[in-house]
């Protein structure tokens, strides 16, 4: 049998990984290809990784014919060196032909790999195209085979900076459901100050939820996500909302970021909890009917750490003691009075909403 080993962090597995695996299976006429997710890359910080279980689960969701996941490195724990993995497979399949798939970006450092000569003697190193720069010397020295695959511009790091189209839809559903990579994505979408505000809102929302015996997790996540699209331009926001039938005529600028956040989280990030999403959708405008969670998010957003309203400490105290009393004073001070002071003219609908919840 012809068997290939395809190691990597798969953090998360993206469309390019699958294309490479398919190319390798076809071009090398493989009987089996094993994805071997790393427990920890010795050159990377551990905090960059989501858990082994999650990365393996996501891999399992995208396997095609002749593909499998090996938990050798994750089960073994600690730092994984390629030589250990290669020896393990050689042991397991002593009479088969083994291939080791690596990206062309790794070729230049190949001579620094632990026990590279032994690796090259046990398996055929196959180099797939990732970019055009690689060392031809190493390629020859270790008798590598160059795969003539088409280069696909997919990467996990692009995913983590918010390019969600890098992964398959079912992988994104898994990510949204388990709230993975959100911190990385938020950091790349937002300025440091805004990102801090997400944290502070999440923390205060969690505190409010705790005092009201509500789900701390939901409140925290609502706070953590609520301003995810706040720094999009108006143009970007309206263009994103076009497919939902929303435009300059039926959605005012101040309603934009709560609306884009709702749709982006629901349809792109695929966050599934509708109660949380609905709270985010009205976190600026409020609504005539509000769930307890929506009240919590509104309050937390307005008076969390970092907010400097006059009397903010007193408002925090009131809100922590009594949610509805807190909502009254926060709506009065931070929505109604503040907007009036700024000379903002409300729509009738908006005035009705603020007045319902204010003091
Ligand atoms: Fe907001
Ligand atoms: Fe906010």
Tally of DSSP helical segments: 18
The general outline is elongated
Return the domain count.
2
What is the averaged pLDDT score? 95
Percent helix range: 40-55%
What does this structure look like?
With 359 residues, the chain is α/β, with parallel strands linked by helices. The protein has two domains: 2-173, HUPs (Rossmann fold, 3-Layer(aba) Sandwich); 190-357, Hypothetical protein af1432 (Orthogonal Bundle). The protein contains 18 helices and six strands. The protein has a six-stranded parallel beta sheet with strand order 3-2-1-4-5-6, sandwiched between helices. Helix 12 (234-241) packs across helix 13, helix 16 (312-321) runs antiparallel to helix 17 (323-341) and helix 17 (323-341) runs antiparallel to helix 18. Residues 197, 201, 226-227, 301 line the site of one fe (ii) ion. Residues 190-315 form the HD/PDEase domain. This is Probable nicotinate-nucleotide adenylyltransferase. Belongs to the NadD family. Keywords: ATP-binding, Hydrolase, Iron, Metal-binding, NAD, Nucleotide-binding, Nucleotidyltransferase, Pyridine nucleotide biosynthesis, Transferase. Its EC number is 2.7.7.18.
């Amino acid at each position: 049998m012809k068997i290939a080993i395809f190691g990597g962090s798969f953090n998360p597995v993206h469309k390019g990984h699958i294309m490479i695996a398919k190319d390798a299976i076809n071009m090398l006429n493989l009987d089996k290809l094993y994805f071997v997710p790393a427990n920890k890359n010795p050159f990377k910080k551990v905090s960059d990784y989501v858990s082994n279980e999650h990365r393996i689960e996501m891999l399992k969701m995208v396997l095609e014919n002749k593909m499998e996941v090996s938990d050798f490195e994750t089960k073994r724990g600690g730092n994984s060196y390629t030589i250990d993995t290669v020896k393990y497979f050689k042991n397991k399949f002593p009479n088969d032909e083994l291939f080791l798939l690596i990206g062309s970006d790794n070729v230049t450092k190949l001579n620094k790999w632990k026990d590279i000569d032994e690796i090259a003697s046990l398996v055929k190193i196959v180099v797939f195209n990732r970019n055009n720069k690689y060392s031809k010397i190493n390629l020859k020295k270790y008798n590598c085979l160059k795969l003539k695959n088409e280069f696909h511009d997919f990467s996990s790091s692009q995913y983590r900076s918010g390019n969600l189209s890098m992964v398959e839809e079912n992988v994104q559903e898994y990510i949204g459901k388990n709230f993975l990579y959100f911190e990385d994505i938020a950091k790349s979408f937002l300025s440091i100050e805004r990102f801090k505000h997400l944290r502070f809102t999440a923390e205060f929302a969690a505190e409010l939820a705790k005092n009201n015996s509500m789900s701390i997790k939901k409140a925290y996540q609502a706070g953590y996500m609520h301003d995810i699209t706040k720094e999009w331009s108006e143009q970007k926001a309206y263009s994103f909302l076009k497919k939902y039938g929303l435009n300059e005529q039926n959605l005012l600028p101040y309603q934009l970021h709560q609306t884009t956040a709702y749709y982006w989280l629901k349809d792109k990030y695929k966050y599934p909890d509708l109660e949380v999403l609905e709270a985010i959708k009205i976190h600026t405008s409020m609504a005539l009917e509000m769930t307890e969670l929506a009240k919590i998010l509104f309050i937390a957003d307005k008076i969390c750490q970092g907010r400097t309203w006059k009397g903010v400490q007193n408002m925090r105290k009131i809100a922590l003691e009594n949610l509805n009393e807190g909502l009254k004073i926060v709506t009065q001070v931070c929505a109604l009075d503040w907007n009036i002071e700024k000379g903002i003219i409300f729509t009738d609908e908006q005035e009705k909403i603020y007045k319902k919840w204010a003091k």
